[in-house]
Amino acid sequence: MGTILDMMEAIPFFGPFTHQEKRLLADSGHCFELYKDGDVIIQDGDTRDSSLFIILSGAAFVRKDDHPEHIIAYLETGSIIGEAAFLVGGRRRMASVVAEGSVNVFRLDHAALAQFDCPFQLKLTQQLVVIIVERLEKMNEALSELMG
Predict the structure, then answer these.
(1) Domain count for the chain
(2) 15 lies in which domain range?
């Protein structure tokens, strides 16, 4: 399990977590998945799966299924995926995320999260809120630049 723990140590998202908390996550092997090139990690429009994904190694791209030739974004190691659907269960996935090469991800669903104590759950939720706020700030800056 050392490799997964090493990958987690290198991801800023896991920074606020103690070594023991990261070890608990690493030891719960059901939270880690490997995707091959072209595998769909998240499906545009899906409402059944509200899992959160964190890319531990590899890369992926984001696209809308009605325009598969248009790449919206490229995601690298450390990228957080699916936070909106995770925080607001049942929310429709806004885009597809497709593996580009081999991709190791940390996957967390609500059943897995329920196995951890409340302080851990709160810490994870706070990290997601920070990420969403940072993304909103970037969008606002980009919009301001666009508007002149």
Answers:
(1) 1
(2) 2-147
Going from the C-alpha of 81 to that of each of 19, 24, 98, 105, 117, the distances in angstroms are 23, 21, 11, 10, 23
pTM attached to this predicted model: 0.88
Residue 95: both structure tokens together: 């885009």
| pLDDT at res. 116 | 87
Residue 85, exposed/middle/buried by CB under 10 A (0-12, 13-18, 19+)? buried
Distance CA 106, CA 27 (A): 12
Largest separation between any pair of C-alpha atoms in the chain: 50
The enclosing domain of 73 has a CATH number of 2.60.120.10
